[in-house]
């Protein structure tokens, strides 16, 4: 014992087997390296455990005088390892998304935004790491809304309501549901391909896309369940329809995928779901289309917001969007587009009967739906900065498969 | 001028040994030492190769250090301890009984069954048994030979001894102080379930043993090891894996208890030959 200890701690009967190290650690934290802490206690194993613990933490131990009859076990001289570990540590940006980094470094990796990061560790490769590329200021708010509006397919849909449909109307519903399921499948896979590439610094976008995927998962569930509610077989899936969806999934550019899926595809889908809700022949179909429509609206809002932001900072964005529409149109030019069975089923649902006048009216409504979809696409294209005449031209090139 | 070189031996007692020394190798090479390592499956061959001049340095257990000293002396040469970890200094071993044991003091262990680690474990076998023998306490030894040849680096023998104690298969168990703490914290031993009835004097553990401390390579090796900083994020994970916060100058004053135990048990002959009965690394 060569100096007066600067600090003291009494552990009472607490041993290292029950957390005594926390008290010692806390007391040492208040001392500078080289600072001395006299540790007293009554746990019989303390004289064995305290030095062993200190050794592993880089602290030195001074032994008491053998004649010392107090409960003093040892004096711990604080080492530098605790401080050294945090040499070169940095905050992973601000905790709140108010002043996000324009390009967070790979070394921040999976560290929580705002956390104090120990230096070292892996350089995580998240290639979608530019704020202008992925961020939209509305993302945190949209995520909160999305999280608050998650619904339970079991309790939110009147699965047990009694209804009976003529066989061919039921078949039309099954056909439309079959088509919806494959579209929702694509809408789940597209964001899934990007979630793992977005730098966690932009976590609200990742969270939003994760909820969006959960939305699509529910949509797949309820549309499948409605399709099989009265029978055991699904409808048809056309090669052209699947080809159209595949071009969505194959798009590897986040902005372009977001544009094709959310702005054009899901935007049109909102109109389709609205049409189905109005023309649904049964309460289950009506309810699930309404629920899905609420979710899809949110997806469109985020897609629009992030592209509108990007358009303000990247003057060439519109050229890329234009090219993407042309590229997809060219890729699909030899395909039939919308499954004819789906189109016919929509007419049947809108007609509600087989009387020629009703069929004619149903046909008219489906044409109005297509017109509404076209008008919606044009409006969104104009908001992204396209001239109205060009917006009309580009909207016309959109896939006939709606999504 | 070519970079100074060092070829070091290390015993592969765990897969992490590869991670540790590959990492250190990259760091040492980046600092001007042409360093490489070879892995051994046990310490005996590593020590023989060091003394035979096939390697320049050996990351040695305390038992391997003693044998290297003896083999070198027998061949008219000498080995030297270059560095050691801060965690290699002032260790103790303990003899532990169950909390409800009638054993109150070390003398009460006479004639009882005491569990130890592997035959070649300094901390869980040789030193604590030497301590009991020096206290004049004859015991019935039950050995847990896990990782024989690794000189106790493998924790398995000590853990099995601790488990045997809790299972009431033995009356007492020997282990290093840090492992008693670790076993209590991980739950192998219940927090108040054991009582320490004996603690050895402080001793030292591993060291970096070298043949030629004056060679440029070995001198640079020592300087670089001592210069490794826990504040350096490149080496810190490796230091954590190897269980140290700093390399320090080696000292050889902490091996007397082990040397006495080795002689008393006839583990090695004075000329370094392996004479322990039933020891087949």
Automatic annotation (TrEMBL), chain A:
It comes from the Bacteria. One of its GO terms (molecular function) is oxidoreductase activity. InterPro entries: Ferritin-like_SF (IPR009078), RNR-like (IPR012348), TusA-like_sf (IPR036868). Transmembrane segments: none annotated. This is Ferritin-like domain-containing protein. It comes from Micromonospora acroterricola. The lineage of its organism: Bacteria, Bacillati, Actinomycetota, Actinomycetes, Micromonosporales.
UniProtKB/TrEMBL annotation, chain B:
Pfam families: Phosphonate-bd (PF12974). SUPFAM superfamilies: Periplasmic binding protein-like II (SSF53850). This is ABC-type phosphate/phosphonate transport system, substrate-binding protein. It comes from Micromonospora acroterricola.
């Amino acid at each position: 014992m060569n100096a007066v200890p600067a600090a003291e701690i009494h552990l009472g009967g607490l041993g290292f087997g029950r957390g005594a190290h926390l008290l010692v650690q806390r007391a040492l934290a208040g001392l500078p390296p080289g600072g001395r802490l006299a540790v007293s206690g009554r746990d019989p194993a303390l004289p064995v455990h305290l030095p062993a613990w200190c050794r592993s933490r880089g602290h030195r131990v001074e032994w008491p005088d053998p004649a010392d009859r107090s409960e003093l076990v040892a004096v711990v001289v604080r080492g530098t390892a605790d401080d050294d570990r945090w040499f070169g540590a940095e905050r992973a940006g601000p905790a709140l998304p108010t002043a996000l980094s324009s390009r967070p470094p790979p070394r921040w990796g999976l560290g929580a935004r705002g956390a104090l990061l120990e230096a070292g560790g892996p350089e995580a490769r998240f290639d979608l790491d530019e704020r202008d590329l992925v961020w939209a200021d509305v993302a945190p708010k949209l995520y909160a809304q999305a999280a608050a509006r998650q619904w339970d397919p079991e309790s939110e849909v009147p699965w047990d309501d009694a209804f009976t449909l003529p066989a061919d109307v039921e078949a039309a519903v099954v056909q439309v549901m079959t088509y919806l399921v494959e579209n929702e499948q694509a809408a789940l896979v597209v964001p899934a391909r990007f979630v793992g590439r977005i730098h966690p610094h932009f976590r609200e976008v990742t969270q939003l896309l994760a909820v969006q995927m959960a939305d699509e998962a529910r949509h797949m569930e309820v549309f499948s369940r409605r399709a099989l509610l009265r029978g055991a077989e699904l409808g048809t899936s056309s090669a052209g329809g699947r080809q159209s969806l595949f071009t969505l999934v194959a798009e590897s550019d986040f902005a372009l995928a977001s544009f094709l899926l959310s702005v054009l595809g899901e935007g049109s889908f909102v109109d389709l779901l609205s049409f189905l809700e109005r023309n649904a022949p049964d309460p289950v179909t009506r309810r699930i289309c309404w629920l899905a429509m609420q979710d899809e609206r949110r997806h469109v809002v985020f897609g629009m917001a992030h592209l509108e932001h990007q358009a303000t900072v990247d003057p060439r964005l519109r050229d890329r969007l234009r090219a993407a529409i042309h590229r997809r149109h060219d890729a699909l030019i030899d395909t039939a587009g919308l499954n004819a069975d789906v189109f016919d089923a929509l007419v049947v649902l809108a007609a509600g009967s087989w009387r020629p006048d009703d069929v004619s009216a149903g046909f008219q409504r489906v044409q109005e739906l297509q017109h509404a979809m076209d008008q919606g696409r044009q409006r969104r294209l104009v908001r992204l900065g396209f001239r109205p005449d060009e917006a009309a031209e580009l909207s016309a090139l959109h896939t006939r498969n709606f999504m | 001028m070519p970079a100074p070189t060092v070829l070091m031996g290390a015993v592969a007692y765990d897969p992490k040994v590869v991670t540790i020394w590959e990492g250190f190798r990259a760091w040492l090479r980046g600092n001007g030492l042409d360093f490489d390592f070879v892995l051994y499956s046990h310490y005996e061959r590593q020590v023989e190769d060091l003394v035979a001049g096939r390697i320049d340095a050996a990351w040695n257990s305390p038992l391997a250090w003693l044998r290297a000293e003896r083999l070198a002396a027998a061949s008219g040469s000498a080995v030297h301890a270059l560095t050691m970890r801060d965690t290699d200094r002032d260790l103790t071993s303990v003899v532990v009984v169950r909390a409800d044991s009638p054993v109150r003091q070390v003398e009460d262990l006479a004639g009882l069954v005491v569990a130890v680690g592997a035959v070649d474990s300094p901390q869980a076998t040789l030193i604590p048994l030497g301590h009991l023998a020096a206290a004049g306490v004859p015991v019935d030894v039950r050995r847990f030979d896990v990782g024989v040849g690794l000189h106790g680096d493998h924790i398995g023998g000590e853990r099995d001894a601790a488990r045997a104690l809790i299972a009431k298969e033995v009356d007492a168990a020997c282990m290093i102080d840090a492992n008693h703490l670790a076993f209590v914290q991980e739950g192998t031993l219940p927090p108040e379930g054991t009582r320490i009835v004996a603690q050895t004097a402080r001793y030292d553990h591993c060291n970096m043993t070298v043949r030629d401390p004056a060679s440029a390579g070995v001198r640079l090796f020592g300087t670089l090891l001592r210069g490794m900083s826990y504040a350096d994020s490149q080496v810190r994970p490796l230091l954590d894996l190897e269980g140290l916060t700093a390399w320090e100058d080696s000292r050889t004053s902490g091996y007397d208890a082990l040397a006495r135990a080795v002689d008393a048990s006839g583990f090695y002959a004075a000329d370094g030959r392996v004479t322990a009965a039933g020891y087949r690394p």
